[in-house]
Amino acid sequence: MPKIIVANWKMYLSREESLRLFSSLAKFDMDTKAVKLVVAPSVLWLEGISKLVYATPLALCGQDVSSRQIGAFTGGISCKQLAEIGCTYCIVGHSERRAFMHEVGTEISDKIRALLGFNITPIVCIGEDVISKKSGQALEVISMQLEELGSDIEWGKVIVAYEPVWAIGSGMTPSKEEITNVVTFIKEKVQPMAVLYGGSVSGQNILDIKHGVDGFLIGFASTKFEELKFIINNGE
Ligand code: PGA
């Protein structure tokens, strides 16, 4: 299976910057790489990019989705709407949404089920915070986060992104042994389609952490073409 690299552009880029970056990535010769590049722009720019994505090997990804199908949910984006514009992946349960939007396991598992109903691959984020890390309870927290999603998730159709909260945007990463340990734990517990690592992945650390994972979920470094190109070239 090719490595999966998800470029999570969060709320970083303007319309013009997003289109320019996407066009540069689309021109970059990915055919020889054992990499599947998945791009998650702001929801506002998804439609513009969806008109370009068909002619490329890249895939489109939502940064979030509503757990509801249709109705009076102001500001909501449904799975059907994402599917209509060609999204084939969607991030759910990102720690920023858990922290700022108070998302919890039941809502996240509803989103996973809703996405699977539209053949959109969920990328579910889990990971310990700094307190759990320091008290040596990372695996307990990860285990609990997986369990609270419920026992009826079709894990074989789901990608898990291991993203320690303390590593996101901090410039710090776990050691490669720690990452491999958690990835193995997740694979043994739920057998997902793939397990990615996310949290301060950059051109500087990709060579150290690339082994033992099925790919990466990359935030800030994925907004810079040269750095992302370096990661793609060296992360496979
Ligand atoms: P980062 O973000 O690469 O900027 O640390 C990763 C993420 O939050 O998905």
Task: Supply database-style keywords.
alpha/beta; 8-stranded parallel barrel; 8 strands; 236 residues
What's the arrangement of secondary structure elements?
Blueprint (H helix, E strand, L loop, with lengths): L2 E6 L6 H13 L7 E6 L2 H11 L5 E4 L16 H6 L2 E6 L2 H6 L4 H12 L4 E6 L3 H5 L3 H10 L11 E4 L13 H15 L3 E5 L7 H4 L5 E4 L6 H11 L1
Parallel strand pairs: 1-2, 1-8, 2-3, 3-4, 4-5, 5-6, 6-7, 7-8
Helix pairs in contact: 1-2, 7-8
Give a quick precis of the structure.
With 236 residues, the chain is of the alpha/beta class. The protein has 10 helices and 8 strands.
Share in helix: 25-40%
Shape: globular
**Percent of residues in β-strands:** 15-25%
**Span between termini:** 10 Å
Look at the helices and sheets and give the structural class. alpha/beta
Total strands: the figure is: 8
List segments where confidence is low: pLDDT < 50 over at least 5 consecutive residues.
none
List SSEs in N-to-C order.
EHEHEHEHHEHHEHEHEH
The strands making up the biggest β-sheet line up spatially as: 1-2-3-4-5-6-7-8
What is the residue-averaged pLDDT?
95
What ligand molecules are bound, each kind once? Answer: 2-phosphoglycolic acid
Based on CA atoms alone, the radius of gyration comes out at: 17 Å
Secondary structure tally, helices:
10
Profile the largest sheet. Answer: 8 strands, parallel, barrel
